[in-house]
Amino acid sequence: MKLRKFIIITASVAALSFASMTFADPVIKLVLNGKELKTDVAPIPADNRVMVPIRVISEALGAKIDWDAETNSVIIDSTELEARKMQISRLEEAIKILAPQDQLGVVKTWAEGVKIRNGVLQYTLMSPELQKQMYDYFVSMGWVTGTSSPWVENYEITEKYKSEKAYTYEVDFIYTDSTGAKFTEKQYITLRNFDGRWLISNIENADVVGKITELTFSKDNKLEKIFVESDEAPIGTYDKANVLIGENTKIYKGYSDEELKPSDLKKGMKVQVDFVDGPMIMIYPPQAEANVIRVIE
């Protein structure tokens, strides 16, 4: 049986609610997933709707379009698009079956996914909650992560903590480029058991690693900010930073899952900080809210 999926449209244009329209300019712009689509015929407002050329939308979504003169119909064939979705779904299922079941094996497979820039491989090894957090990122990257240059040449994995409930690994990614220059970036991977499978539940960066040299308190004596400064060759992205303590900031003892309170932070403690994703004040030293603070000494 030949499987084909058709959408028959009996007009040459259609109003599409999923594409956003910009009315500020005299010419209406057609924007799909944040990217402006160029059309040979401009969208036209009519009867509280916007009529747009259907070909440019269909092709942008990966569908094929044709004109049937006998039935006076536009035919959109999304078979290939559906096949791609099925292919990804089956690939995820295969990875789940073939992926290592031991903790170190999972981290090695994930690190290899980072090295070869395979977003599907990385995604499949994540916990359901982390998948929700990361889905939009992978989609925006077209499931191809990282950059063509610099690229990951190699990686080293070190176990930092283990318990019955969680394992934490340090992954050193060694990057290089066409000039032969090399640099290292660290990430910390936490695994937990989900229904018999060890999956990645958290990924942290070492944005700044150093000693706490200053603490800033609010009027009601609540810790608002710490200043972290490295007294040796920088390990993190920055050698010093103003670290804001937010409502959702997590503080842990070492690489364990033992939580601490902001009041436990003292001058002289060595900490490792992972900043939240999002904007930061890029003065020097930078200032940003902490996602995770780990007291490592």
UniProtKB/TrEMBL annotation:
Q: Which Pfam families match?
A: Cu_amine_oxidN1 (PF07833)
Q: Which SUPFAM superfamilies match?
A: Copper amine oxidase, domain N (SSF55383)
Question: Which InterPro entries does this one have?
Answer: Cu_amine_oxidase-like_N, Mao_N_sf
Please give the superkingdom of this protein's source: Bacteria
Q: Does the keyword Signal apply?
A: yes
Name the keywords, alphabetized. Answer: Signal
Q: What residue stretch is flagged as signal peptide?
A: 1-24
Entry keyword annotation includes Signal? yes
Sequence ranges assigned to domain Copper amine oxidase-like N-terminal in this UniProt record: 31-77
Protein name (Swiss-Prot/TrEMBL): Copper amine oxidase N-terminal domain-containing protein
